[in-house]
Amino acid sequence: MNIKTLKGMKDVLPSDSAKWQYIEDNIRKICARNGFFEVRTPILEHSELFLRGVGETTDIVQKEMYTFTDKGERSVTLKPEGTAGVVRMFCEHNLGYEPQPVKMYYLNSPIFRYENPQAGRLREHHQFGVEVFGAKLAAADAECIALVFELLTTLGVTDLSVSINSIGCKKCRPTYNAKLKEYLQAKEDSLCGTCKTRLQQNPLRILDCKVPTCKEVCACAPKTTDCLCEECENHFNELKTFLCEMEIKYNVNPLIVRGLDYYTKTVFEVVSTALGSQDAVCGGGRYDDLVSELGGPETPAVGFGMGMERLIMMLENLGVELPTQQKIDVYIASVGDKALLASIKLAYELRKQGIYAEFDHVGRSIKAQFKYADKAGAKSVIVIGENELENGIFKLKNMADGNEVEINFNSAVEQIKTNFEV
After folding, report:
1. Which of 299, 287, 292 is nearest to 83 (CA)?
2. What is the pLDDT of residues 214-252, one digit of tens each?
3. Which of 91, 111, 271, 403 has the fewest CB atoms within 10 Å, measured from its CB?
4. Which residues on adjacent β-strands are paired with residue 280?
5. End of a domain among 272, 287, 317?
């Protein structure tokens, strides 16, 4: 039986995991110095969480969720996005009583969406995201955007800018929706079938449609920023002021609405033109009503999500040099049973000192062991045989230049540590 991965799923091989770990390390360091703390939520949640939080008219809920009935006759869903689960956690554990703001991040959170797999976006992909609860000022929005810029710049991404928009709040959104619906009804014949349905249920979703005819119609649609209430307009202007103060390049894009219903006020997408395209690296925004909609207290909130597979693909396309699989520091080749015992002990002691040591596990000949060490990229090789055991001396060979250093059994670990500057 030849069993393979499901369509849209992908293995991370040992040769690739170093790239993930490098990016993860940078994320953790940057989040720590920005005051964000890691959280981890289950991959499986009650379906109602996403129906209420994400929105029943979104593509995610209507077309893409992995939903099934479990053995307890409950409708459960593999999480299709990260924020709703974090908000559920915030409410369930009464984190609203903690000193505000509460700043959290999640890393490599598996996300499941049943959609056509594409480059950097699989049916199971992984996200890094941050969430800030209890901060109503636009300074929190700007801080999230700045964190993205700091991370991407650290990883080697250039030519960054952020596209921003404000989609208003519960007070001013109905006015805009009415204007947008009136405009779109006059052009309904040019809309795709999905958007004709959206026109009746949630016209704002049409602005996010990727169908060319719909994009053409939306190009001249009323702008959300023309219908903002005073509070939303002031908030949006404050965001622009903060971005200018941090010298973060931005442009206002009235067509950005994001694909989730919980957004209010700020929505944004960070882009890099380094690849000659305007594809978003990450996206996010403010969701001031979501906590209360899921049973918590009135709590302003803002955050973003970033696909890890997409980020790695972009870094590779930009030619950013990412770490590869760790190479062996010392390979201990052995001849005979007594030598194998000595090599096991030496490897164990070297590993405790932070040196990556390997020895023969499969009974290779000495010649085959050297071939293996060379193929595995070992930096140096030690040979232990009967003569070495009798004399108490062996040689450490540098595989790059062939130079050899004599090592005494009794002080082997210290001498090798010195050689590798551990």
Report:
1. 287
2. 988 888 899 999 999 999 999 999 999 999 999 999 999
3. 403
4. 271
5. 317
